[in-house]
Design goal:
With 217 residues, the chain is an alpha/beta fold. Helices cover 50% and strands 12% of the residues. It has ten helices and five strands. A five-stranded parallel beta sheet has the order 2-1-3-4-5, sandwiched between helices. Helix 4 links the parallel strand 4 (83-87) and strand 5. The N and C termini lie far apart (41 Å). The modification 4-aspartylphosphate is found at residue 59. Residues 148-213 form the HTH luxR-type domain. One of its GO terms (molecular function) is DNA binding. One of its GO terms (biological process) is regulation of DNA-templated transcription.
Amino acid sequence: MQSPQRILVIDDHPLFREGLRPLLQNLLPEADIVGLDDVESALIMAKNAQGTVRLILVDLQLPRMGGLAAIGPLRRLLPDTPIAVVSGSEQQSDARAALAAGAQGFVPKTMRPPEMVHALRQVLEGGFYAPPSMMGAILGALPESGGSGADEHGLTQRQRQVLECLCQGLANKEIARQLNLTQNTIKTHISAIFKTLGVMSRTQAIIEARARGIVQG
């Protein structure tokens, strides 16, 4: 029997968790929505649910261990699961800190439901998300590309290989296998590609790469 797919929502406000439920069911109808009050409970769940968690949403303000401190331990337990911070804060400094800690998205709680679904879908599909007003802060927190080995587009040879694989529609696991690299290394390259191209998602990266003539087709 196939293991159930889960979305973890780490937030100590039950009303907010319940309010998210219909949005998340729209995003992933087959997933169980698991609400958790604190990070400690989430870490226990993560240890026992490897391979079944599709998305993690975490608030910044939580009892005992805060959401920002939780990102690292969650990332180590579930390295292939995207994490988004869903917060009442709209500070660029919080968005930058969340991304630097390993989150793929920063989603203010004040967003309208359709916009929030769009944002979380972008994170779920392997991209990054922040509100347009925070875009500069988020791109600034992504790993640097370029360097002495960069081409005229600011990409290294390895980043071009990863970009070509993205344009072929390959998932991170498939790219890692094809290039004989770890999935975490692939994620780092993709983050650097996004920063160099000034984009926030795989789809945008593919469109931009083709528009610039970096890849053909």
